[in-house]
Amino acid sequence: MSSPVNVSELSAVDKERLAQVGIDLSMKNRCGTYLQMDQDIVQAECGESGIEVLSYKKAMEKYDWLKDYTWKVVSPEKDDITRYVAAQKDPKGYVIIAHKGSNNMIPVQACLYLGNDKIQHVHNIIIAEEGADLHIISGCASGSHAGKGGAHYGISEFYVKKNAKISFTMIHNWSEDIEVYPRSASIVEENGVFLSNYVCMQPVKKIQMYPTATLKGANSVARFSSIVVSTPGSHMDLGSRAILEAPGASAELVTRAITKGGTIISRGHISGKVAGTRGHLECKGLILKDGVIYAIPEIEGSVVGTELSHEAAVGKLAKDEIEYLMSRGLNEVEATATIIRGFLDVKISGLPESLQKQIDASIDVAEKSGF
Amino acid sequence: MLQIKNLSVNVGDKEVLHDINLSIGEGETHVLLGPNGSGKTTLLMTIMGFSNYTITKGKILFKGEDVTAMHAHERAQRGIGMLFQRPPTISGLKLGKMLTAISKTKDVNIPELAKSVHMDKFLERDINKGFSGGEIKRSEVLQLMLQNPDFVMLDEPESGVDLENISLIGTTIGALLEKDKHLIKRRKSGLVITHTGYILDYIDADKGHVMCDGQIRCHGNPREILKDIKQRGYKECLECRHP
């Protein structure tokens, strides 16, 4: 077995990779940290009162009731990935609990870093108790020295209680030889808000995920936003699903996808099961170089009084838009970058400014390398 | 400032402009009149350098330099600017971001400038998305203020603008064309397409040209030509084959 990686041993390049996914090793703008290198938990702490950041194992020892939150929204029998993680004798991952009424606008950071191992597995449980506000930035990256292939299996179960809110911003920075299989689901109770943001602008061999939010409580809200760029050799099978099970529940699924030669499958599914629910699904794709964007939007209404809509478009950059900017003095490269930047500019309401800035910053990095 | 010599232009396979000659001196503003579909906008788009408009014959000289083969941004950088009648909507691109991109390194207070044409509330809006006719024109004028071109082309600057805003747009365009400066000191030139002539109250044009079927048919005093057209329409212009 390879020797464990420590933060202090990280090269400047790796530190930079972590910074790019929003991980602040100095902790300046973060209220808590969970850092896992391969299978080693390097750090699990939180300075904010009312919020606990624990390793999965410690959390299970500390709170007996957590067993009621384990494998409850994601089934261990779902597929090979869940079976693999469920079979682990020494489970890894984190548990973040925002206790009743706690309110932190400063995000907790969770970093899952793949260095030497073949398969990194995690099982995460995130709970916002009644009235709590919890913001998490999850940065996932592989070491610059990886180069040998590897995979990340991640199970995440989210529980948004009555009047609570979770925003979960996940930024990926893997590499060409890494396969990533997140399996996540959430339950949102009355007046709860679940925001899930996903950004991946860097190469990955394969990523497959389809997080699901079940809106069980009246007037609960789920918003999924994804901003992805697929480079040659990357296969990204992404989706999000919202199941509207209570009156007043609403969901919005927004995707901006760009291919520079890779494949993006953009799935989306909203199911309206009771009256008084609303959902909108939007996928916009740009094909910059020959690649595939396959949008599969599904809306499923099964009762009178659910209002669902979808909008999907895949195309190229419009010449008249580029030339319009050129007539203002921008050269073709600048004009193109300005338009793409606008295309990716999805403002997420309810997200703390620092996290919006982090999303913008990862787009900046991609912009500097010429998208 | 601008010289167009024997210019013929195709859009697709069809020749739309035939053998155009036009010369606009420094400090001069000319007006381009003509019925719908006569080729006025095509001429402006060709001068700006849009790639859909293929020059098959002739050339365009700007400040003595041949710009015929140049891209739009090279012409813009040399001082050609245009107010579009129907600019495209760019989804996601905020007006404020576009203005920042145009201004590049220039040290300007964009919100302050936007306020002067009542566009400060639009900086966070997608450019031209859901803008009214008047808002589009104010956004265009605002972009031109940042660009500050030496040669300003205006494609129907008053269309869709309410009476209250015509004065604002007219005065701002007047300033772009240095109409506030004495004739001797004026360096900026312009070419304006108008149907109503309202804009002429603000920019005192020097010459008028009438375009019909892709040709410039006659020249003269802009107000006189406009008066003539208002009384008699374009019928005689269309019949006039020998300017």
Walkthrough of the structure:
The complex is a heterodimer of chains A (371) and B (243). Chain A is of the alpha/beta class and 371 residues long. Chain A has helices at 12-20, 56-62, 80-86, 319-326, 332-344, 353-368, and strands spanning 32-37, 40-46, 51-55, 94-98, 108-114, 119-128, 133-142, 150-160, 165-173, 178-188, 193-200, 206-209, 212-215, 221-230, 235-244, 250-259, 263-272, 277-287, 292-301, 306-315. Chain A folds into two domains: 7-316, no CATH class; 317-371, no CATH class. In chain A, the strands form two sheets. A ten-stranded mixed beta sheet of chain A has the order 2-1-5-7-9-11-14-16-18-20, covered by helices on one side. In chain A, strands 3, 4, 6, 8, 10, 12, 13, 15, 17 and 19 form a ten-stranded mixed beta sheet that branches. In chain A, a hairpin with a 2-residue loop joins strand 1 and strand 2 (40-46). In chain A, helix 4 (319-326) crosses helix 5. Chain B has 243 residues and is α/β, with parallel strands linked by helices. Chain B has one domain (2-239): 3-Layer(aba) Sandwich (Rossmann fold), CATH 3.40.50. Chain B has nine helices and twelve strands. In chain B, the strands form three sheets. Chain B has a six-stranded mixed beta sheet, sandwiched between helices. In chain B, helix 5 packs parallel to helix 6 (163-176). The A-B interface holds A 284, 318-321, 323-332, 334-335, 338-339, 341-346 and B 48-52, 71-73, 75-77, 81-82, 84, 87-88, 90-94, 97-98, 101-102, 104, 126, 143, 147.
- Say what the CATH topology of chain B is: Rossmann fold
Could you state the order of secondary-structure elements of chain B as H and E? EEEHEEHEEHHEHEHEHEEHH
Q: Tell me what portion of residues of chain A adopts beta-strand conformation.
A: over 45%
Shape designation of chain A:
globular
Write the element-wise H/E pattern of chain A from the N-terminal end onward: HEEEHHEEEEEEEEEEEEEEEEEHHH
Helix/strand structural class of chain B: alpha/beta
What top-tier CATH class of chain B fits best?
Alpha Beta
